[in-house]
Design goal:
- By secondary structure, the protein is α+β, with helices and mostly antiparallel strands.
- It has a domain of about 40 residues: YefM-like domain (YefM-like fold), CATH 3.40.1620.10.
- About 20% of the residues lie in helices and about 20% in strands.
- The protein has two helices and three strands; from the N terminus they run E-H-H-E-E.
- Strands 1-2-3 form a three-stranded mixed sheet.
Length: about 80
């Protein structure tokens, strides 16, 4: 892992951040030779699937084509 003094990091912050983003390699920032922070690249988020995103998450119980009850027992709602 590359190390950089905090004074040099302060002077070249944007360039260091761009380098970490491009190379995907972290940088350790030191103060008087002791590590105080690490700049690491963010992990790429996996792309979400829109179509079929819930595939395999639903379980069907019973027959889906049968009615769930008698229509005579239904009462209309007042709108």
């Amino acid at each position: 892992m590359r190390e950089i003094a905090i004074s040099k990091f302060k002077a070249t912050c944007l360039a260091v951040v761009d380098d970490v983003q491009k190379t995907r390699k972290p940088v350790r920032i030191t103060k008087f030779g002791k590590p105080v922070a690490e700049l690491v690249p963010l992990q790429d988020k996996p792309k979400k699937r829109m179509l079929g995103g819930l595939a395999g998450t639903v379980e069907f119980l019973g027959d889906l084509s049968k009615p769930i009850g008698a229509f005579e027992n239904w009462e209309p709602e007042d709108l």
